[in-house]
Inverse folding.
């Protein structure tokens, strides 16, 4: 033991640590309190949001309650509601006595008896059941008998129960009744059956009453915008009991946890909450597009699957939104939020509710982005073609091998030892022969497909093989310098070419062009050409005029200055049949006569700027430039959009963009702008895409590079709106982590619609036609078509086309819209239209896709089997003739008949086409209410009126109709579908003279 | 000067221990040495005055006559430890509240981060990879470091300095520690944190860590500089150079180890095995600074090239 330490001023022994111990203990306690605060509030900012929401929301509800109550009151006071309400009351009164009888018997007699009987019955039954089991399992006969005696004794036991029953005067009295087991069982079963019967009777009684009530409540819901007063009260009660807590959606199968609604509490509230409603707090608004939420139930999809962001994070807004450099899926910005649709809807070109994304895909598709950048689903024809061709090759190989095996089998059979063996060999040979014929079927199919694909392959730009026929050579280098100078709206982007590159490329293109002479064409009438150009339908794709003065569609080239470059002798054959000259172009034939073509071409060559001048470019003939030109053409990927001699098999030069949105940010080369980007906050995919699209050379800034190393992407001079759309599309192009079944997998119908859009956009159907409700064709925006007379000249709307026309007819029509192999210089259906439905030279599979597309858009069944129409009786035929020629509905005044004199003034199709072209159901709906199907149509509405279950003619009825009991509209439909040319002539002759000769306009 | 860059590195939650290290190590080094020198002065006084030494053997300053020779663990030590525990708890609490765990994005097997850095305590090892081949830097040298640390008590024949700070009585040990731990190990941790940027390129503090930076750095092996091409020649030449280095370093170490009479006394107590072991570890340790100089100043990659290992 050490000695007791001496007392002194030894600091080790005597120094007091009290003060420092106190201070550090206090600090530690303070840090502990801090930790507690941090845990309860610091890391849970959503608590404040929730408190704030509760007060704002209850204030809002309080505010709207009186207005909603007043609005509800107004509906309640309305005659219609009161009528229904009275009916409800009356119905209630009329069934009340019967209901109360039923209820009394159910409750007081049957119910009370059952409640007494059930227990003793169940006990006895299980006692017997247990004994029966013993009998079943016993092996001893005497024991079985003893057990059976026991059961008999139990069954014979009598029970006295006090049960309710009705006496003679209908009052309920209780009295004692005695039962043995069998009686008890019978009574139990009887009561159960009685109860069910009473229930059914009651349900039957209240059925009509409930229907009335439902009708009344639906009326209230329909008339009232927003909630009823009682619903508001319910919400207020709920908000009074508001509990603070994390609100989360958990989708177990993808391990998704989204706590977004911990702050965004108004998202799924059953009323529209605007920013103003919620005291200016945007965080509390309800979802701006409830229709999307209805399609994508948040309980199944969560929030962050579409919007991105970090659904788990609750500690700060920044982290919740994923705006953190280590969070790879930050919330999409407002202008790009539709990007979220793409991961599951990648194969849809056109998607409801996603206009920005649709626009982005359209630009990508139509402007030719896919010429350089592969993107799954875009421009797949070339890949499909090579696949088909290699399949054909493989099949041919198989076929050859089988042929050899046949020979060997036959040989082996000839040399076989015995008959059985020989037959086995011959059988094998026969089997192989049949297999070969199967292969032949398959090969035939593939060859058809291959031929189709060759037709389907299209380029965004024109073929450059034709330059020598087509244009002045001086124009080429000027065009290459900056295409937007010559044609501001062109799809051709501006490449950053120096003088030498320009010269070399021009020379190469010029020298690889096909040489030859085109026959010289006589000039046409330019004035008539202008009229034709503007009315035949050219302007469904082309425009003329610069800037705001431009008229027509921006789909194809703006032709304002086309006269400066083209040769007239080329224009004529080109316009006459574009597919003949350039099969890779989408330009269709309008089936113009040669004279019309010359007129239009003559007009086009007059389109030029007076002061346009092009410097001499004799170097285009310099063979020394050709090889350098080849290199640059290859380098810049010109063959992505143009057909160029020697580049037929050229691949894409750009990076694939199918998964660009989830490419690691490190793989996007910000080059010397990296630090600026990080500093200014655009070091992300959005920042990269937007800047690259605005100025494709931006990431070369400050870099020293040789011409071959420089970034190649040309400048498309995109507008900010286009850039936002493309950025949205690219941001959404991600490698999804969701399982396959989350993706949109349409049924046959959806699939047909999906595939059709690719064709509708490629061939610009919407330049002339309305395909979707709400969409306007390019033609309809032109000044000319604002005139009411010209409005009737607009090509027909295709909304509901699938319900209107017979699919087989549509296929024939698409193949040849003239509907006649001889007289092609016309419209097959609407001869009266100036604009002409062009011949696109679709492949068979394209026609099939388009037909299916329209059928699917109109929700038609596939295949279409025409309804069988009842033949007309003689009387009916006569009635129909009378209607057809009546003064109130002179059908043939507007509808064409095939008689040239008459048809000059016709503004509607020929009835003779009805039978093969239309579907009867649609025809009837059309006659009854054309305004519903094609608003603004010249076809009069209100021709028929409702009479009970049938439609009757609204005009003055011919007397013969008085006792005709059937539907008048249906009668006309049947008549039209069975119309023959003779019958039509007969009708014509019966037309009132005034009507036939009316020169309507 | 890119202050933003420097600030970013300094304030990275990962780097908190290293920033603390830079501040704390010099402070405690100074503080420990101050106490050691004070104790040395007391030892001198005690040795000069046998009477005083008899009354008190506590070799720590401040010292006054009458103070206790020995004190109890409880309460005199434990209460201090308790106090320290409280303060450390406080620091850890504040640290954990204010700085979140420095998690990054999910690992992507197809994308290596750049720079890819080891945790701070392994940065020294990672930096060694610049100077030696992976077999040496990753396996042999770390093993030798661990074994060497374990062997220290068995090589140490100096009985003095237990339980008190002293410089005079453990000069060699202290210098060896300074050099091995602070100069070699810690400085490499600091280099790995502050100096090595993208591509493990040398960026001076305040230089922007530019992913696009390109440097021209053609390293060569020492035998190549002498035009030796055959494998055998390279092996023999390298062995000769490394052997020469070992001999020269060992002589230098010996000179230092036997610098004064006190050292020689300690030296005389050592067995041959103890001494050879000491020489082996010290010579191996000196390989590192030698290679750093060769690599950083003369762009020499390896000195001794063999098919099995490179030094």
């Amino acid at each position: 033991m050490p000695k007791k330490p001496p007392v002194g001023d030894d600091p080790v022994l005597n120094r007091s640590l009290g003060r420092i111990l106190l201070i550090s203990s206090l600090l530690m306690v303070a840090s502990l309190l801090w930790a507690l605060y941090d845990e309860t509030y610091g890391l849970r900012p959503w608590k404040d949001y929730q408190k704030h929401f509760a007060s704002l929301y209850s204030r809002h509800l309080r505010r709207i309650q009186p207005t909603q109550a007043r609005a509800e009151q107004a509906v309640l006071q309305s005659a219609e509601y009161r009528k229904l309400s009275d009916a409800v009351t009356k119905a209630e009164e009329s069934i009340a006595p019967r209901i109360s009888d039923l209820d009394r018997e159910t409750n007081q007699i049957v119910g009370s008896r059952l409640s007494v009987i059930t227990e003793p019955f169940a006990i006895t039954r299980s006692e017997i059941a247990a004994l029966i089991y013993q009998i079943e399992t016993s092996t001893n006969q005497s024991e079985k008998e003893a057990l059976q005696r026991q059961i008999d004794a139990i069954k014979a036991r009598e029970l006295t129960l006090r049960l309710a029953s009705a006496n003679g005067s209908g009052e309920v009295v209780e009295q004692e009744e005695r039962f043995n087991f069998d009686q008890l069982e019978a009574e139990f079963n009887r009561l159960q059956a009685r109860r069910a019967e009473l229930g059914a009777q009651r349900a039957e009684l209240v059925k009509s009453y409930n229907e009335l009530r439902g009708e009344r409540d639906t009326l209230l819901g329909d008339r009232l915008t927003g909630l009823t007063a009682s619903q508001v009260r319910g919400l207020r009660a709920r908000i009074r009991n508001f509990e603070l807590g994390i609100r989360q959606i958990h989708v177990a199968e993808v391990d998704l946890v989204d706590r977004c609604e911990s702050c965004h509490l108004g998202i799924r509230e059953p009323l529209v909450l605007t920013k103003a409603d919620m005291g200016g707090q945007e965080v509390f608004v309800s979802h701006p597009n409830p229709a999307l939420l209805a399609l994508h139930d948040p309980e199944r999809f969560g929030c962050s699957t579409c919007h991105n962001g970090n659904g788990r994070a609750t500690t700060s807004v920044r982290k919740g939104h994923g705006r953190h450099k280590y969070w790879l899926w930050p919330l999409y910005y407002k202008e790009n939020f539709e990007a979220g649709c793409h991961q599951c809807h990648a194969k849809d070109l056109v998607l409801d509710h996603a206009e920005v994304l649709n626009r982005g895909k359209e630009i990508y598709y139509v402007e030719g982005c896919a010429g350089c950048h592969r993107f799954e689903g875009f421009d797949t024809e070339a890949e499909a073609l090579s696949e088909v061709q290699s399949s054909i090759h493989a099949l041919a190989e198989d076929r050859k091998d089988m042929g050899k095996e046949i020979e060997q089998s036959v040989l082996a059979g000839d040399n076989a030892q015995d008959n059985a063996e020989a037959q086995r060999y011959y059988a094998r040979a026969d089997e192989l022969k049949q297999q070969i014929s199967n292969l032949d079927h398959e090969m035939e199919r593939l060859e058809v497909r291959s031929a189709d694909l060759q037709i389907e392959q299209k380029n965004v730009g024109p073929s450059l093989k034709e330059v020598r026929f087509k244009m002045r050579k001086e124009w080429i280098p000027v065009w290459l310098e900056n295409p937007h100078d010559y044609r501001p709206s062109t799809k051709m982007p501006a490449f950053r070419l120096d003088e030498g590159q320009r010269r070399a490329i021009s020379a190469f293109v010029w020298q690889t062009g096909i040489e030859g002479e085109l026959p010289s064409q006589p000039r046409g009438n330019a004035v008539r050409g202008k009229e034709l150009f503007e009315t035949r339908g050219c302007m469904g794709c082309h425009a003329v005029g610069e800037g705001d003065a431009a008229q027509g569609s921006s789909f194809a080239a703006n032709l304002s200055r086309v006269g400066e470059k083209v040769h007239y002798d080329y224009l004529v054959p080109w316009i006459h049949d574009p597919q003949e000259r350039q099969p890779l172009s989408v330009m269709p034939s309008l089936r113009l006569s040669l004279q019309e073509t010359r007129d239009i071409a003559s007009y086009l060559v007059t389109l030029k700027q007076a002061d346009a001048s092009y410097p001499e470019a004799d170097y285009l003939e310099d063979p020394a430039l050709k090889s350098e030109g080849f290199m640059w053409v290859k380098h810049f990927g010109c063959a992505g959009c143009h057909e160029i001699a020697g580049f037929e098999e050229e691949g894409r030069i750009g990076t694939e963009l199918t998964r660009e949105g989830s490419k690691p940010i490190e793989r996007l080369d910000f080059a010397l702008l990296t630090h600026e980007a990080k500093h200014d906050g655009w070091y992300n995919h959005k920042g990269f895409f937007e800047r690259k699209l605005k100025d494709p050379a931006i990431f070369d800034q400050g870099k020293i590079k040789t011409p071959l190393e420089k970034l190649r992407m040309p400048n498309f001079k995109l507008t900010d709106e286009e850039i936002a759309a493309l950025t949205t599309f690219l941001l959404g192009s991600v490698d999804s982590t969701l399982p396959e079944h989350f993706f949109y997998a349409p049924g046959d119908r959806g699939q047909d619609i999906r595939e059709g859009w690719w064709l509708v956009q490629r061939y610009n159907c919407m330049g002339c036609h309305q395909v979707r409700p709400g969409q306007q064709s390019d033609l309809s925006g032109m000044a000319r078509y604002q005139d009411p007379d010209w409005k009737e000249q607009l090509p027909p709307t295709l909304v509901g086309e699938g319900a209107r026309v017979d699919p087989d007819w549509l296929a024939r029509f698409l193949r040849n819209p003239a509907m006649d192999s001889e007289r092609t210089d016309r419209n097959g259906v609407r001869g009266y239209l100036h604009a002409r439905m062009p011949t696109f030279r679709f492949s068979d599979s394209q026609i099939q896709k388009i037909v299916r597309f329209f059928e699917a858009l109109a929700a038609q069944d596939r295949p279409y089997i025409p309804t069988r129409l009842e033949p007309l009786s003689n009387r009916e035929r006569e009635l129909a003739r009378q209607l057809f020629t009546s003064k109130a509905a002179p059908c043939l005044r507007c509808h064409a008949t095939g008689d040239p004199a008459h048809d000059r003034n016709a503004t509607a199709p020929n009835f003779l086409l009805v039978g093969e072209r239309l579907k009867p159901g649609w025809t009837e709906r059309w006659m009854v209410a054309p305004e519903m199907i094609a608003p603004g149509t010249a076809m009069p509405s209100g021709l028929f009126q409702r009479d009970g279950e049938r439609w009757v003619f609204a005009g003055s009825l011919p007397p013969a109709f008085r006792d005709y009991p059937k539907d008048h509209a249906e009668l006309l439909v049947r008549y039209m579908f069975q119309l023959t040319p003779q019958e039509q002539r007969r009708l014509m002759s019966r037309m009132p003279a005034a009507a036939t000769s009316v020169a309507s306009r | 000067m890119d202050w933003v860059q420097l600030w970013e590195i300094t304030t990275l939650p990962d780097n908190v221990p290293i920033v603390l290290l830079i501040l704390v190590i010099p402070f405690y080094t100074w503080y420990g040495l101050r106490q050691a020198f004070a104790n040395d002065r007391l030892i001198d006084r005690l040795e000069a005055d046998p009477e005083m030494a008899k009354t008190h053997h506590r070799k720590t300053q401040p010292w006054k006559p009458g103070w206790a020779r020995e004190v109890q663990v409880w309460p005199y030590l434990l209460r201090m430890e308790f106090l320290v525990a409280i303060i450390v708890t406080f620091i850890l609490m504040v640290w954990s509240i204010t700085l979140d765990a420095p998690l990054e994005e999910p690992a992507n097997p197809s994308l290596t981060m750049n720079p890819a850095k080891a945790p701070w305590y392994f940065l020294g090892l990672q930096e060694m990879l610049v100077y030696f081949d992976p077999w040496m830097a990753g396996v042999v040298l770390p093993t030798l470091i661990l074994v060497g640390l374990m062997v220290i008590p068995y090589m140490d024949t100096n009985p003095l300095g237990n339980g008190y700070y002293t410089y005079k009585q453990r000069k060699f040990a202290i210098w060896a520690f300074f050099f091995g731990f602070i100069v070699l190990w810690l400085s490499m941790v600091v280099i790995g944190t502050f100096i090595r940027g993208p591509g493990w390129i040398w960026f001076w503090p305040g230089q922007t860590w530019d992913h696009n930076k390109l440097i021209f750095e053609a390293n060569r092996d020492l035998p190549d500089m002498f035009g030796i091409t055959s494998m055998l020649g390279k092996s023999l030449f390298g062995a000769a150079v490394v052997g020469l280095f070992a001999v020269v370093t060992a002589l230098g170490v010996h000179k230092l180890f036997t610098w004064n009479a006190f050292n020689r006394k300690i030296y005389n107590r050592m067995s041959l095995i103890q001494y050879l072991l000491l020489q082996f570890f010290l010579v191996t340790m000196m390989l590192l600074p030698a290679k750093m100089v060769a690599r950083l100043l003369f762009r020499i990659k390896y000195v001794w090239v063999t098919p099995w290992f490179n030094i």
About this structure: The radius of gyration of chain B is 24 Å. The first helix of chain B runs from residue 3 to 11.
